[in-house]
Amino acid sequence: MTATMKRLFPLLLLTLIMLACGGGEETVSEAPGETPAVAAAQDIDVKKIWKIRCIACHGLYGDMGTNGAANLQESTRDLAYRVNIITNGSENGVMTPFKDILSPEEIEAMAKYTMTFNENL
Predict the structure, then answer these.
(1) 96, pLDDT greater than 50
(2) What CA dihedral angle connects 57, 60, 61 and 62, to 10 degrees?
(3) Which SUPFAM superfamilies match (predicted)?
(4) Is 39 part of any domain?
(5) What percent of the chain has pLDDT above 70?
(6) Which stretch of 1-5, 13-17, 99-103 has the lowest confidence by average pLDDT?
(7) What is the pLDDT of residues 12-25, one digit of tens each?
(8) Which of 94, 107, 106 is nearest to 58 (CA)?
(9) What total of structural domains would you count in the chain?
(10) Which range of residues forms the domain containing residue 109?
(11) Residue 66: inside a domain
(12) CB atoms within 10 A of CB 116
């Protein structure tokens, strides 16, 4: 096994474990009279999404920095910037775009959640 493979193996293993433990897509059921956006916003489990989609690069506390991921404990970026990055990914390709994976409501909820890692904001 090469040195690169030895470094990436734990990340790959963690990713496979996370996918096996709940990486499937979920549907949101609407209550009578609610719009899909309202129903979705009420049912978003950001911690679950974080564990499935984000923890491999950002870590449990937002400071792992795997593969060049931003340290969210030090980031002072505003909500609009974070929504854009989560939606479209980063220009350098380090951050994966999630516009085809998460709903706009989930993206906004995740952006707000990332701000909780930096208590100085």
Answers:
(1) yes
(2) 20
(3) Cytochrome c
(4) no
(5) 64
(6) 13-17
(7) 656 655 555 444 44
(8) 94
(9) 1
(10) 46-116
(11) yes
(12) 11
What single-letter DSSP state applies at residue 32? Answer: T
pTM for this entry: 0.66
The tokens describing 105, both together, are: 């409501």
Residue 97 has pLDDT above 60, yes or no: yes
CB 103 within 8 A of CB 70: no
Structure tokens at 7: 């470094």
Determine the pLDDT at residue 88: 97
Task: Identify the CATH number of the domain in which residue 100 sits.
Answer: 1.10.760.10
Q: Where are the alpha helices (DSSP H) in 50-95?
A: 55-58, 79-88
Residue 6: both structure tokens together: 């030895």
Q: Contact 95/85 with Cβ under 8 angstroms? A: yes
Q: Examine residue 2 and state whether it is found in any structural domain, yes or no.
A: no
Residues 60-77 as b or e (16 or more Cβ within 10 Å = b):
eebbbeeeebbebeebeb
Would you call 88 helix, strand, or coil by DSSP? Answer: helix
